[in-house]
Design brief:
Distance between the termini: 116 Å
Number of helices: 0
Structural class: mainly beta
Largest sheet: 9 strands, antiparallel
Shape: elongated
Length: 659
């Protein structure tokens, strides 16, 4: 039996729109026999039932038989909420009419936003004459298997269950889209005089020759006889296998539009309806329809949602931009109906990393050179080789003499010497007279001694006497250095001046040791060996402790984070480059490294990319170090590097022992 869209027929009636647990009833256009009993009324329930008594709205289904619901066709008994209502109509002409009720586009209780994906459409048909019952299922989707019968009762029942036929109770898949069920009444029998009995359904339709001739079975003679019951008037042709318009051709010229895509998508994008042709009482396949498909990057709306190329089809795939260096890597994107390759990274300033950062086709160009050393010890090397920053090491050293030159290539001139009456005395010798003089040459850029200054008797020639402190403004023009070119013998200690060294990235140096690899650090201390004996306030040390809070100690492994003024008796023999409550990032941390060759090795301790306790503040970046730049020299240098500091980003502190 073909599906009839009752709701689209002219003259159809609609009941119970937007109804929950509603009932109604109608007088049938013909007498219908159900289990042999004639009925002229049918009760309709919104919950999928036809009853030949007053209808019930029972929403909780049960198996059959049931005494709760009498004389009923259970087309799809479930708790159904009506979206568009139930449509009824009579099709065909007597004595072959059909009364049909369609439950059109329903959903399951309760109503809400989740019902948008639920679409339940089915119909029950009663046929005149044959008393056939047909249930047809059209669109059955929503809540998984529930829409195919997983929570429904389907069947028929006489009275309170004296006779019944249960198709399924909560059985998934028995009511799938396009399926149908037909019940025909059992045939009665007619018998002739010799007691030969044959089935015969009195009044059932039968075929007679002729156009529009109505044939019905007559069982009164004891055998089935197809009798002429007249002719029916021509009617509009419908797809039912009958010559409705009495032109001698069955189902001629019948076509209808069809579309299997989701509701609301036909006519959107590439989607369009097709055509079905009626043949032998059934609609053929839908020809020519275009339903939603997968979106591709072509400027066309293939998924018919009203948006072209949504979801970036073909995008998100690694690709090459055809550019140089770091600009070459890209990711595809669908743009204006075409796949393009957008670069992942743009050009930046060139750095020493073996990568073409500025995307000009050349690696590590324009990084210049690095110079170190003074006077005859000066050396210049490329700043970058093979993607590795280069460390400049001054030239070979000699023995310092009192001649106004930096003989040992340590950046100091005539250090460890003073002269009395033109004679040079070594560091540590006591000045015997007031005629002791100190060389005041400020750097190796000045040739020869520029001035000599007298100092008082009883002072000691200081190790750094050959270079005047910057704070004392000795500029090599002949002005004498201040009297503190010598210090009293009893004081000892260190003097402070500007470090001649450059910042060394210890963490990037060959053989560097990361102290706390792979983890963030707060309030920690770790012992490290010093590769040579180092003199600090007269004591010799070959190891020390690095405190994550910015101190280096020769005596203890304290991780104290609360800084105080000096002196501090709790932290003996300690260098305080940046004592604060610091937080070391896992990507930064602290490192130690030894650079150069003996006897001029440098031991460097670097705190790299630190923040302040106790969180990773993205605006705080501290990068500083302590360098012990010469074996058995007793001098330490402090470098602080990073854009978060004042001035040019560098603050230096150098201490030389006064001996």
């Amino acid at each position: 039996m073909p599906w009839v869209d009752v709701c689209s027929l002219a003259g159809s009636r609609t009941f119970l729109a937007n109804s929950d647990d509603g009932t109604t009833g109608e007088t049938l256009p013909f007498t219908f026999r159900f289990y042999g009993s004639p009925y002229n009324y049918v009760g309709i329930s919104s919950n999928g039932m036809f009853s030949f008594v007053l209808p019930t709205y029972a929403w909780v289904n049960s198996t059959l038989p049931t005494t709760a619901v009498e004389n009923t066709i259970f087309g799809f008994w479930d708790d159904i909420y009506q979206r568009n209502g139930i449509c009824t109509a009579t099709v065909g002409t007597a004595p072959l009419r059909r009364y049909i009720a369609e439950w059109e586009d329903n959903f399951f209780y309760p109503p809400g936003s989740s019902n948008a994906s639920e679409h339940v459409t089915f119909e029950i048909s009663l046929s005149e004459g044959s008393n056939a019952i047909d249930v047809l299922y059209n669109r059955m989707q929503g809540q998984g298997t529930r829409a195919t019968g997983g929570d429904a009762t389907i069947g028929i029942q006489r009275g309170t269950g004296s006779s019944f036929d249960l198709v399924g109770f909560n059985t998934a898949g028995i009511a799938s889209a396009g399926s149908s069920i037909r019940w025909l009444p059992g045939s009665s029998s007619v018998c002739n005089a010799t007691a030969d009995c044959v089935p015969c359904a009195n009044g059932a339709p039968c075929s007679l020759p002729g156009i529009c001739v109505i044939g019905v079975l007559d069982c009164s003679s004891g055998s089935p006889v197809c009798t002429n019951a007249g002719t029916r008037p021509p009617a509009a042709e419908t797809c039912n296998g009958v010559d409705d318009d009495c032109d001698g051709v069955i189902d001629n010229g019948l076509t209808q539009g069809c579309y299997a895509g989701p509701s609301g998508t036909s006519g959107v994008g590439v989607c369009s309806a097709g055509v079905q042709i009626c043949s032998a009482g059934a609609w053929g396949a839908c020809v020519g329809q275009v339903v939603p498909g997968m979106e591709t990057c072509d400027g066309v709306d293939e998924d018919c949602d009203g948006v072209i190329n949504n979801g970036n089809p073909g995008g998100g795939v690694a690709c090459s931009t055809g550019e140089q260096g770091r600009c070459s890597a890209g990711t595809t994107a669908c743009t204006a109906g075409a796949i393009v390759c957008n670069r992942d990274n743009g050009p930046i300033s060139e750095t020493c990393n073996g990568v073409d950062d500025d995307c000009d086709g050349t690696v590590d160009e324009g990084l210049g050179t690095t110079s170190c050393g003074i006077g005859p010890c000066m050396r210049t090397v490329p700043a970058c080789v093979g993607g590795v920053p280069q460390i400049c090491v001054p030239g070979g050293s000699g023995t310092e003499v009192c001649d106004g030159l930096d003989n040992d290539c340590d950046g100091l001139i005539d250090e460890g010497f003073c002269r009395i009456g033109g004679l040079c005395f070594t560091n540590g010798q006591v000045n015997p007279a007031s005629s002791c003089q100190v060389c005041t040459v400020p750097s190796s850029s000045v040739s020869g001694p520029t001035a000599w200054s007298n100092v008082a008797a009883g002072t000691v020639c200081r190790g750094a006497a050959g270079v005047c402190d910057v704070a004392e403004s000795c500029d090599g023009t002949g002005a004498a250095c201040p009297p503190d070119g010598f210090v009293p013998l009893a004081t000892g200690g260190y003097s402070r001046t500007t470090s001649p060294l450059g910042f060394i990235d210890a963490c990037g140096a060959s053989g560097a040791t990361v102290l706390w690899p792979g983890s963030s650090v707060d309030d920690a201390s770790q012992s490290v060996p010093i590769p040579f004996s180092f003199s600090f306030y007269g004591g010799l040390f070959s190891s020390g402790w690095v405190n994550s809070n910015g101190t280096f100690s020769f005596s203890s492994g304290s991780a104290a984070y609360g800084h105080t003024p000096l002196p501090n008796g709790a932290l003996p023999n300690t260098i305080f480059p940046h004592w604060d409550d610091l937080y070391l990032r896992a990507t930064g941390n602290a490192c130690v490294a030894t650079v150069g060759m003996a006897p001029n090795r440098q031991f460097v301790v670097q705190w790299r990319d630190a923040s302040f306790c106790c969180s990773d503040d993205p605006t705080a970046h501290l990068n500083f170090e302590v360098a012990f730049p010469r074996e058995q020299h007793g001098r330490c240098d402090l470098w602080v590097d990073g854009p978060e500091h004042s001035g040019d980003g560098r603050q230096r502190d150098d201490r030389d022992p006064e001996r």
